[in-house]
Amino acid sequence: MGLARSTFQDVPVRAVDDTAFVEAMATTCDAFEHHGWRRVQAALRQNGLQVDHEKVRRPVREHELQPKMRRRVTKTTDSDHDHPVFPNLAKEARIHGPDRLWMADITSVTIVGGFVYVAVILDAWSRRVVGFASAARSTRV
């Protein structure tokens, strides 16, 4: 016949119609707007569609079906209080050596189970940490 052997082994190229598949993905993403491609893939498999991760990830990017990101914000500061607000005396201070002025700050650090408070005392001249403490909850005096 005069044809190469690889001609018979080659799969003919056919256009893939993904409209039904993309519509199924869009309805899943609309119903569960915070689901990423892994959960969308699991939902499609539950509905009987055999899909792999590459078949799901590409349409998610191309059709902008990315999940909406949740922001978990924990309010740790209450600025609406009747307590006195003291002036910042360190703003005008001129420091000429170590251990003349210490500054302190408290912050919260997010961990797996929630967050912890970290209090740090810094030497203003050398920026060296003089002391620190951490606790799972704030202790009010």
Contiguous uncertain segments of 5+ residues: none
**What is the β-strand count?**
3
Taking Cα atoms only, what radius of gyration do you get, to the nearest Å? 30 Å
Gross morphology is: elongated
Beta fraction of the residues? 15-25%
Q: What's the total helix number? A: 4
Reported for the largest beta sheet, the result is: 3 strands, antiparallel
Distance between the ends:
95 Å
* Helix-strand makeup class: alpha+beta
3D architecture notes:
With 141 residues, the protein is an alpha+beta fold. It has helices at residues 5-9, 19-31, 37-46, 53-62, and strands at 102-111, 114-123, 129-135. A three-stranded antiparallel sheet has the order 1-2-3, with no helix packed on it. A hairpin with a 2-residue loop joins strand 1 and strand 2 (114-123). The longest helix is centred in the first third of the chain and has 13 residues, at 19-31. The relative contact order is 0.09.
Short description:
The chain is of the alpha+beta class and 141 residues long. The protein has helices at residues 5-9, 19-31, 37-46, 53-62, and strands at 102-111, 114-123, 129-135.
